[in-house]
Amino acid sequence: MKNNKYLAIHLLNDFSGSPLVLANCIDSLIEAGHNVELLTSGDDGFLSHCDCDKTSINYRRFSNKVLTLISFILCQLILFATVVSKTLFVKKENKPKILVNTILPFGAALAAKLTSCHITYYVHEISIRPLILKRWLKFVLRFTADDAIYVSNYLKENEGVHNQVIKEVVIYNSLPKKLEVIPLDLNSDDFIVFMPSSLKKYKGVYDFLEIAGKLKGTKAKFILALNAEESEFKAFVNTFKSSGNIQILRRPSDINAIYSRSSLVINLSHPDEWVETFGMTVIEGFVHGCPAIVPTVGGITEIVVEGYNGFKISVADTNAICNKIVEILGDEPLHGKLVLNAINTAERFKYPEYKNRILEMLE
Fold it and tell me: How far, in Å, CA of 245 to CA of 219, rounded?
C-alpha cells in the first residue's frame, strides 16, 4: 500500500465537535502509515495533541461581527497563499491530498484546485449565517471537491451536491480514540441532567436554565458545561439568578467524570437557527450510560431511537421536556432500560469501526 501525504485544514482549533472528529481522522491516517500535515489556529483544542506536523494560522473570533468577518477573510488569504506554497511546485504524483474540514476554509480549497490537488471536504455544518456566505461556501465546494464526507444522512440529503462528479458518502462520527469510561455509580441517589454546550443562545442554554428553574424542588439536579472564553462565561453567569439546583462549569478538565455521574444528557439546540447534524455529546453520553433528550430535527435524530435510548421533544415545548425528565427520574425500570440501550448503541460508534470507514474513503 502506498503511503500518501495529506494536508488537513481546519480554521478554529477548540474543544467542539468538528476538530474532535478531524483529530480522529488524522489519528486513523497516521496509524495506517500516512504522512499528515495540519493547518489550523494556534489555540488549544482537540487538534493540539495530533502527532503530525502543524502550521499555525491566524484566526480569531470577536464579539464584534465586523472584526470577525475581517479576521475570516484575512485567514482565507493566508490559507490560499500557504496551500499554494506547499503544493504548486510539487510533482503531480507527490502532491498531498487535501482534506478541508468544515466548509469554512474556502481559501484552501480554491488554492488546492488551482494547483491540481485531490480535494476531500469533511462536511459537518449547515447552520451558517448570513445566507449569502453559505451559498458562496457551497459553491466553492461544488466547484473544487472531488469527494465529500457527511456526518449524517440528514446532512447529505439536505446539503449534498447530488451530482455524478463528486463522490459523496456518509460516515458517522466516532467516540474519541482514547476514551476513559468511568464505571457508573448505580448507588447514587442523585438524578443529574447534563448539557455540554457552546455558549450560544441558539444552543438552548437559556432554555436549560428555564427547565432547571421549573424543576426546582424535584430530585433532578442540573449541570451545564460551557465551551466559552472566560470573559463570555463570567458575563453569562452574572446574568441569571440561580435556582439552587444547577451548576455551571467552563470547560471542565474531566468531562467524562461528569458523564459518569449523570443520569440524562439533553440537547436543546433551536433547529430554526442551528440544526444539529450529528450530536457528539449524545454518543459521549451513551457510552457512559446516559440516555438523551434531543430535538426533533437534524442528524441527531438518527442516533436517538424514541423510547429505546432517549426521546425526541421540541425545544419549544419546555413543559414537555420537564414532564419527560420527571417521568424518567420517577421510573427506575424505565431509566434502567434506557441506560442499557444507550450503552449498546454506543458500540456502533467506537473508534475502530470509524477508522475502517475513513481509511476506505481516503486511501
Answer: 9
In 3D space, the residue among 260, 265, 296 whose CA is nearest the CA of residue 280 turns out to be 265
Domain with CATH 3.40.50.2000 in the chain: 5-171, 191-348
pLDDT at 25 over 60: yes
Fold of 5-171: Rossmann fold (3.40.50)
Count Cβ atoms below 10 Å from residue 98 Cβ, excluding itself. 28
Distance CA 208, CA 222 (A): 9
CATH no. for 191-348: 3.40.50.2000
Please give the Cα distance from 246 to 228 (Å, whole number).
18
Cell numbers 448539557: residue:
195
What pLDDT is recorded for position 322? 99
Q: What is the model's pLDDT at position 185?
A: 62
Q: Are 325 and 292 in contact (CB under 8 A)?
A: no
- Say yes or no to pLDDT of 24 above 80: yes
Side-chain-side CA neighbours of 345 within 13 Å: the count stands at 25
Contact 146, 95 (CB under 8 A): no
Question: Over the Cα atoms of the chain, what is R_g?
Answer: 21
